[in-house]
Structure formats: structure tokens, C-alpha cells
Amino acid sequence: MATITLQVNGKSHVADVEPRTLLVDLLREHLRLTGTHVGCDTSQCGACTVWVDGKSVKSCAMLAVEADGAAVTTIEGLAKDGKLHPMQEAFHTCHGLQCGFCTPGMVMRSVELIQRNPNPTEDEVRHGLEGNFCRCTGYHNIVKAVLTAAETVRGGAQ
Amino acid sequence: MSGAEGLGASVARKEDRRFLLGRGRYTDDITLPGQTHAVFVRSPHAHATIRSIDASQALKAPGVLAVLTGADVAADGLGGIPCGWTITNKDGSKMVAPLHPALAQGKARHAGDPVAMVIAETRAQAKDAAQLVEVDYGPQPAVAHLNAAVAAGAPQVWDEAPGNVCFDWHLGDAAATEAEFAKADRVVSLDLTNNRVAPNAIEPRAANGHFDDVDDRYTLYTTSQNPHLIRLLMGAFTLKVPEHKLRIVAPDVGGGFGSKIFHYAEELLVLWASRRVGRPVKWTSDRSEAFLSDAHGRDHVTHAELALTSDGKFRGLRVRTLANMGAYLSTFAPAIPTYLHATLLSGPYVIPAIYAEVKAIFTNTVPLDAVRGAGRPEATYLLERLVDKAARELGIDRVEIRRQNLIQPNQFPYQTPVALQYDIGDYPATLDMALQAIDYGKFGERKAESETRGKLRGFGISTYIEACGIAPSALVGALGAGAGLYEAATVRVHPTGSVSVFTGTHSHGQGHETTFAQLVNERLGIPIENIEVVHGDTDRIPFGMGTYGSRSAAVGGSAIYKAIDKIVEKSKKIAAHLLEASVADIEFEDGKFRVAGTDREKTFGEVAFTAYVPHNYPIETTEPGLEDSAFYDPKNFTFPGGCHLVEVEVDPETGVVEVVDVAIADDVGVIINPMIVDGQAHGGLAHGIGQALLEECVYDDDGQLLSGSFMSYCMPRAADLPSFKVGNHVTPCTHNPTGIKGVGEVGAIGVPPAVINAVIDALAPLGVTDISMPATPEKVWRAIQAAQGGAA
Known about the structure:
The complex is a heterodimer of chains A (about 160) and B (about 800). Helices cover about 35% and strands about 15% of the residues of chain A. Chain A is α+β, with helices and mostly antiparallel strands and about 160 residues long. Chain A has helices spanning about 25-30, 85-95, 105-115, 120-130, 140-155, and strands at about 1-10, 10-15, 50, 55-60, 70-75. Chain B is built from 20 helices and 28 strands. At the A-B interface, α2, α3, α4 and α5 of A face α1 and α18 of B.
């Protein structure tokens, strides 16, 4: 067992984990943050996407011990004081989610996407989401939501 | 009333918030006190005898509580996993339905067949110990593919199914069809394969079983589209426990697409194992395990022939299909290639005679069953490919050959030669709407522009119909179904006027918590924030048959309307008493009960309160309280239909196909929430384009699944798809109270042939006449090379 210390959604946690424990299992099983989902075992689907030190990471492809000392943000940490992030709001208004299972990873990836590229084209959004699978929406309304949120965030920054 | 939240309003979804905050509650999120974890040992062989199982080392591993095998299943008397539909053969005998034990007994019949179950304190410990279970297999010859399975001398999956035939069935008038072919000017024929696909809901299946020995009661949390159906099957056939001792909860479910309809061994086993170990037992599928244990879809090999007059009028259709069942019969498997496939072969066309023969075949592969569309995509694909081929061979425009054969609006109700009677539709209208949306007249200009970039542009069309609103119970019973297919609803008006709706359907992405609240708002005028929709728990919901076949709004919504009718009827009696008027004079409109022709009125809230505080009340004739239930049994299927158009660009150098435009016009009946309806169409389109271009379960000749993970099974990604142009032309369903037909499957049904027809259209100038699904770059490139006489 290894003892690690990390920040998750602004709170400090100390955890004893097996060296093989994945970050996603630490989040889901140890910290009971079940908003981060597991949809595959080959790091394709992106349902487990979280931020580690501000960058989106597939938490099924990272060992918990690698997150020692890191600041992790999960979907549970995105809304502030019950107010949805503009990306969450845009997924809601654009109907960018159906079953909701890919949604946490999709939202976390999308926020990072528009942070890196505040004014993306539709094509850039589609390529930017290649690491996240959705089986419900055909991506149509997810793309619309990301473009909408980008516009909102740009408007807010002006 | 159709106000801001009623029919036709694109209300944002009530259920979104919990999902967006990461507060959804899916089966794997649920951890019970004393939770243990199960992992399955699965056969690596497609076909093997099981000589022995040695669990001694596994039992000594850290944290292990039990290792259970087929012998334990047999000793405890668990029933085999039942098939819910029996097909009658051409000769009047019944199909072969072999025993499907929950854990393999003596033989494994497909790679992935569960052989043992390891239960441990943690999932990691169970996984470790599963590696230590020693199974002595005796590998046997296996067969995976349809043509190989029906060949002479093929390995036999079941001794009781000679030639691997599960059933040999037919539909239609063979003699009448033969007569049409005999006098036809032209006959066009086609051999095609409908590729095998995996459902791949992004949430893998999971089950968490808990036996409470104090109450002698079982609770199962499971990823199901139909918890009551699971309770029925477990109660009557597998666990053999009376329903009142069995609670099935399907909490938030991360997509189903058919795969979560069926009763699976794992959900039975966790509940049984919980009684054995005295603690809750949870199993969650890995994705690679899902590929080997979720029911797959499609996998048909078909020969089809169309008889036509020289000017392109359809006269007859003959279809011969082999349908793969896999190693065992899944819950609804036999119904898919028969009553959900052959019955749809008339499509939206007038075809005077049709005859279809379907042979279902066992193979050493994962069982097959419904995947989004379920039989109807296979029917649409063969018909629309055949119609396109006929147009090319007869030199008739592909749009015009369809237009001249469409059933006209004045021909409804229309009786097809394959059992169905379509109630209503306007196929020319959806055809024209789609053509306009894609600006068909300028296709030539777009094709020329593509050529300047070295791309071959193709236009593809599909006019389709499907049967939804499953289904009239007496009819499906006569056809072999083991269950009724009505739907149930309870509407409970609370004393202060808010409403809880309990529905037997299940929402796993469809948005029922919003759309069903809109139905109540439409009828009762209550704001949707004051309406809750409850589903997915057999302890809370009286009964129901669940969600599949695009049935929830059409059948479940009709049950809600029926229950509301009863609520309104009773409310009028209460209002009449309060208003000192006769019941016949009470009108209900905009949420108010009014004495006709006066301004004397009572609000719905006042009536509800009076029903629960009956101080001034017609107590002699009317019970207190305001709650009612209804079971709605459909009178007919519903028949959504429409036109799907696709434009592709093919890169002749690489064979890469890009879908550059998709325009569809559907008639899904009355629309509750246009935003949600469009979203359902989008998802179906992605599914259909995935099948046409990307997705395939590939088995080798020995029955090993080669595309068993997301590394090798190509799921549609955002960059594989364009944005979609979606339109609707509504003709309300004539036989249910909502007018709804259903939308969940239209995309997956209509679009695959449009994609392939577009690819063939793009490649036609090079001499390519056929391409199979999925039209991968390699396949397209080889087809180009072959057509041009190159080395392919």
C-alpha cells in the first residue's frame, strides 16, 4: 500500500492505495465521487475524464499514486455554489445529454477545450472531442453546446 | 391546451441537473453495507467441454468468499434463462429452444460463456482470484458464421438442433408471389449481409443483488430497460421466487439501445449468490466483457429479389434470410428476424405480393437480440438497396422509382401482404421535405465542386417505414410472445395539487421525466415543476413492460392519458358538487372546472384539496382521494416513416468515406418535445451511420471475437459525423389517444441504406456496383481497385 495526499475539488485527502489502483477507482471507490464514470477498459471512451492540475486526463489511464500531490477536479467540483458552469448550462439548454453517462467526462473535456481554444470552429470541436464517446446524442447537440458555451464565456470575458 | 410546457414545447429537461452535477445514480454507483464483489470466469473457447473446475487455489486467495459453478446453480435448482418468444416452423412444429444455464454446465458454447463466479471483498481481489480458477476445457470444433453453420458437416452447437437450425419460418403468400415473378418484366436480385453490431451503451451492464434474510426478500439493482419484465422472468423461471419477495430497481441507466431489455445470467447470479454468502454482491461489466456478454444485433445473410414492370412498378418481393441467434436464445431473439423484420418488407411501398423465408441458426457466438431498430433496419436495408439497384438496372431515377411506388395518403388504412395494416402516413410529403432540405436540385453542382478537390460525391436515399408502439397483446400472443405488451401508469394527485406519475416504462436517456410531465401539463394544466415522473422500481410502480421498440410515449403515454381521463372524470363529480351544478354541465379547460356558460369555476388545486379533505363532498357517490391507474393495450402497431438523404465524399486514393450532409424528414406522429425528438433522431442517425461505415463484430472461423474492445471495434466519434438536418411532418397516429408514433429508432432504421446507396452512387462512375457494411476505407479501396481491374 502507498499513502498519497492529493487535493480533490479543493479538499485535501490522504489515501492508502495499492500501487495498481487507478485514479478513477480512488475517486469512485475511496472518495465516493461517483460522478466520474468508467465506460471502457482501453482508455477510448473518455467517460472518466477529470482535470489533474488543470489538464483533462482520462482517470482510468493514470495510477492513483501518480496523482500524489496533484490537484484533481471532478465533475462534482465544476459548479460553484450550486450555479452551473456555462458549459453545464449549455449542455442543458442545447440538450447535449440524454442518458447522462458520458456527460461528466464530456463536460470536463469540453471546458478544457474552450479554455485552450476560446473560439473554436465546429470542426475543431468535433476533433477536440474525439477522445469522448457518446452513444445517445450523435454528438450534434454536444457540439452545439460547446460552441454555445464558448460564446457565453467569450461574452463574459469582454 | 399546448401552452408553454405542453405538447410541442421544447422544454429543457428536468432530469439534466443531476447528471450535469455528477449526481446521477447508476447501478455501479450504489454500494450497500457489507458490499462484496463478483467477477466471472468466462470460457476462452468458442466451444468446449468442461471436464473439471478446480477452485481450490482461488478459494485460498485473499478476500475470497466463494467460487460458484454450474454445479451449484444446478444444485440450487435455478432455472435456465428463458426465451420469451416461441416461433412456429413452416411445418407447424415449434422452434428448438435449448436450455440456457446461468453458468455453463458441462459445455461452454461461446467465447465469453460464464463458467464460474468468484465473490470477494473487493473487485480487485475477485479479479485476482478468478485468474486462479483452473478450468480443464476440452476444445471442440466451433462455428461462428452463418454460411459455415448451415454447410454440410458443420460443427453442431446443439445436438437437438440438426444443421444448427433453430427455426425455419415463413411469411406471405408463396404462390401469389411466384405468380408475380412469373409474369414480371424484370427481376432484380441482390445478395447482402447485414453486419453484426455490438450495442455499446456507454454504461456497461451492472447488477447488485441483496438478499435480506430477515424479511426473506430479494432486492436487485440492475441496468435494465424493463424492471418488471426482469421480475416476471426471475420470479417465474429463474430464481423462482414470488414477486412480492422480489424488488427490481433500475436506477439511472446509461443508455440501453436494446441491450438492457433482456434477462441476463449475471443479474440472476448476483442475487442468488447474495443468499449464498449472506451479503450484497455486485458485478460490473468491463467493456471487453460487455463485448462477450451483451446481446449483439443484426447478423443476417439475405438473398432478395424484386419483380417489376418495365416502367418500374413493384410487383413482387421474395426474400430468403439466414439470421444468427448465437449460442443461446436471448429473451426476444426469435422475434427480431421474423415479426420485426419480415413484416416490414413492404416498406412504404405498394408491393402486391411478398414472400419471406427466415431460417434462424445457432452458432458458437454471443447471443443476438434487439439492438436499436431490431429487425426493421435489416428489412429497410435490403429493400432500399434492392430498390436502388432496380433503379440503376432499369435506368429510372432513384427518387422517381420510389415516388411512383409509395403508398399514397388516400390509400390508408393500407393492408400489406405481410400481415401489417398501416394506419396513416404521408410518404410523398416526407420525401419532398427531405429533398428540399438537402437542396437536391443542386446536387450536380456540389458533385462538380467535390471533383475539383479530387473527391467523388454520392447521393443516397432511403424511404422507410417502421413498426413501433409495441404491441397489441392478443396479436403478439398469437405470434408466440410469452408476455402481454400493454403499458401501465398510475397518476397520483396530491392534496395540494402536485402530481406523481408512476410509469412502467423506463427512461435511460429518452427524457421521460420531462416529456411525461408535459403530457400531464397538457391535460391538467399543472406546471411541470409540480409533476414528478417515477420509473424503474418494482416496489414503487404497480406494473409495466418497460422501454423498447420506441414504445414509451406511444404506449406508456397513452396509459398516462387513460389514467388522467379517470382523474378528470372523478374531479368533475367533485367540482359539480362544489359548484352545485350537474356533472354534465361541468367543463374542464385550462386547469379549471367551470359550469358551462357561466363564470363559476373551481381550480384543479381546489378540487384536489377537496378530494383529500372531504368536508363538503359527494361522499355517498364518490370516494375520497384523487389517484387512478390505467393499463393501455395498443390496438395496432404505430408506423413512423419518412425519407433519409445522405451525401458522401469518397477519397478514391484512400477509400475514406466522409458523410458530408444528412437531411431527414420523419413522421413520428404527434410530438411532445421537438428538442427531445430531434435528439432521438440524431442519436439514431449516428448509430445507423456507425453501422454503415464503422462498426462490426468480427469473428474468426474458430469463434474468437476479434473486435472485442474499443481498440478494435470502431465506434462513431464526433469527427466522423456532420451536423444533421432534421425535419418532421406529422400525421397523428389514428388509434391511440396521444397520436404519438415513436422516434427512438428512426435514425438507425432509415439511414444505413442511404449511406451505402450514396457510397455506391459516388463509386458508380468507376464501375463499382456493390459495397457491404461497414464500408471501411479498406473495403472501399479494394472495391475501387477491383472495379478498375487492379490488384485488390
